[in-house]
Amino acid sequence: xxxxxxxxxxxxxxxxxxxxxxxxxxxxxxxxxxxxxxxxxxxxxxxxxxxxxxxxxxxxxxxxxxxxxxxxxxxxxxxxxxxxxxxxxxxxxxxxxxxxxxxxxxxxxxxxxxxxxxxxxxxxxxxxxxxxxxxxxxxxxxxxxxxxxxxxxxxxxxxxxxxxxxxxxxxxxxxxxxxxxxxxxxxxxxxxxxxxxxxxxxxxxxxxxxxxxxxxxxxxxxxxxxxxxxxxxxxxxxxxxxxxxxxxxxxxxxxxxxxxxxxxxxxxxxxxxxxxxxxxxxxxxxxxxxxxxxxxxxxxxxxxxxxxxxxxxxxxxxxxxxxxxxxxxxxxxxxxxxxxxxxxxxxxxxxxxxxxxxxxxxxxxxxxxx
Amino acid sequence: xxxxxxxxxxxxxxxxxxxxxxxxxxxxxxxxxxxxxxxxxxxxxxxxxxxxxxxxxxxxxxxxxxxxxxxxxxxxxxxxxxxxxxxxxxxxxxxxxxxxxxxxxxxxxxxxxxxxxxxxxxxxxxxxxxxxxxxxxxxxxxxxxxxxxxxxxxxxxxxxxxxxxxxxxxxxxxxxxxxxxxxxxxxxxxxx
Lengths: 370, 192
Description:
CATH topology of the largest domain in chain B: Rna Polymerase Sigma Factor, Chain: A
Number of helices of chain B: 8
Oligomer: heterodimer
Order of helices and strands of chain B: HHHHHHHH
Helix content of chain A: 40-55%
Shape of chain A: elongated
CATH architecture of the largest domain in chain B: Orthogonal Bundle
CATH superfamily of the largest domain in chain B: RNA polymerase sigma factor, region 2, helix turn helix motif
Largest sheet of chain A: 2 strands, antiparallel
């Protein structure tokens, strides 16, 4: 490979001159020469970033100070070169700079360089990386060089889903972070919901993921004695955080997720059976990771819906594991409901130890694995 | 240019630690590496090649190379971020040469390569420059504010606004500096 590539780490005040150019430099892009026909200054519009700059939109300051003021000093003119190259100074200043460029070689040289640099500015394209690319890249890599410390298979859906949600959050501005989100669930046979914001949802994920952190002996993001009931923990977090929850919550959530995946990668095989308490019930760690992956997807979906972004379901193989967990939990859930009198008892009595009833569960859609 | 990434101001400690973890063969580190640099790699490759599929492919190659050669990174030479960018640009430009070979004259090819190189360097510079400079450039160029309005928006003096616009463009202009012909090739081999 013969192309050498340089990435400067510091400004280069005296970059090399550009050869073969004349000294008189025309304005960088259509300057607002028609300032005198523009109306009095008004709040300038702030149009969305557009790739093609439309000239003469800028409103100029009142022309009051223009006449009779002495020409600006060399230092002031030099300091204007950046603004000049971007057509971001007044008509008088533009004129003064351009007059100066005819008589000052160093400034003329810099002006050329800066004007050329403007041509390199480019709106960010914000191509959304397909989430599949991450799995493909990691697979490729691990195919070339197997990991000595792999991520356990039951932790992979969590790793993938948290990365996917994090990528969604990547370009969020403050308005997205504060977009209202309604969280819905069922309680006492009734649909319950709770209003929060995008940042509040990430806080919810942070606090409930914290149950796994605690089970692994890591620090609880809520501090000691925060309890294990997911809802109570979330309310506690929301109450303890200055309102509103801000984007600051992203980093602790993300780094806790990284720490969890890393910790179980280094732990022995038996770690999958470690018990994670959820208040009323507990799950083995392997299932808890799947549950957290599922929650991450569902809430990412809530967020995406709230800010009107598209969001895809997890990959077939990961969905398969999550649904498998749900199916495995069904008998326990039904037994609890029966004990509470919420489900009808079996019609015929059967001998103890034999299955009393059958639930036929059909799952449709694009799954994966077997 | 919306949204901040943590990666820009990452301390060198993160770089060294990441290198050690990759060298140790930690799959979790590979995932974190991807999360931090995938959009950089993909967007640079896309800027050079102008094609999404090709950018996907470069992304796979670049991460494959890093995963297989974490020791090729020398923290003394700069940040991991700039190393990753260098590898990406080298790989993407090599692919561009390959794709364009025989399509036009030698001069046309070199012109294309030079402008792709400058565009990729400029993108890297913009995404890496200090946030205050970037914000000033964004206001002046994309939002078409003059420097006085930019100063008001950013709550800085007009002098400071002029300084930031000039410094930002000075940084950016280094992207146009042609690499020396005799410069040694970047310290990594092609993954082809």
